[in-house]
Structure formats: structure tokens, C-alpha cells
Amino acid sequence: IEQFEDVISHKDFGTLIHNTLESMYKNIGKLHETKLQSFKKKSNDLLKSTFDKVYAKGSYQKGENRIQLEIAKAYLAKFFDKEIHNLKTSQTEILSIEESVSSTFETSQHKVMLKGKIDRVDEYDGDLRIIDLKTGKVEGKNLKFDDFEDLISDYDYSKAFQILFYALLYQEKHQAKNIKAGI
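^ thats the sequence. predicted structure below, dont judge the formating
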């Protein structure tokens, strides 16, 4: 017998947001305010549809899942508001969403493949950016470091490591230069 969760997990919460944004932003190209306003209006229905794919149909209607749905709606609304605000002074073009990247290297004993999936690659006022979307709390102090050793030895810097790792893999795949990476 397969067992299903009744209440959305933290991991699935992030997946709901990611999948909703991915379905909207896939192949969008240059961002325009009218398109983002449209996305903002459609996001609640798309979020519910995405929720139904992960959990029992309509399970977002009551209890803790209803609260999680409302929080997800607020996240998306805030995200779209920020995107729209940024367009007033900047131009953004989405180059890829959920792009798979990988690289292989060899040691004296093993061949190792490193891979990942970049949430978003965009061009923001001419700057190439690798963006990792997070629904959980990320503290700015954990994105700045003085010693590269901290990136591999201290979990607090895991998100900084992840985004730099993605930038490296993207650079190798596309021979890109002057990449900016961020959360």
C-alpha cells in the first residue's frame, strides 16, 4: 500500500512554487509588465492545479494545507510585484528555466560527474545572472565568505556553494563570462 502525506511537506512547498513559476516562465524571453500582471492573476489557479498534482485533488481547501496554499499565494504575489517593480528601471530577459548542467572530471582513481539544475538564467540590464530561487529563509551573512574552505566545511554556506557551483557548470557549458550568481 502506497502512503501519501496529508499535509504538504517543506520540500514539496518549494516544489509547488518552483513548478508554478516554471510553467509560466518557460520560453517567455523578455519580461514585460503586462505579461507579469497576467501571470500574477493566473498564479492562484495554476498553484491550485500544481497542488492537485502533488496531493489529493482539492486537499488545499482546508486545514494546514489551506494555510500553506495562502502562504504560497503570498510568496508568488510578492515575487511578481518585485519583478514588475524591477522592470520600471531595468530590462530582464529570461534565457532559461530549470536548465540542467553537468561537468565530468577525472581523478587518478575515479571519473566523477557533477550535475545540477539551475532555477533561472537571465540577462538583467546586460548582466548574465544565475539565480537559485529559495522559499525558505536565506541569511545574507551566509552568502558572503572570506575563505573558500568555509564553502565546503560549514553547512551555513551551502547555499553560497550551490549557486557558485551552478555558475561554474553554466560557464563550462556555455563558455560564458562575467556571470553574476544570486539567491
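The mean pLDDT is 88.
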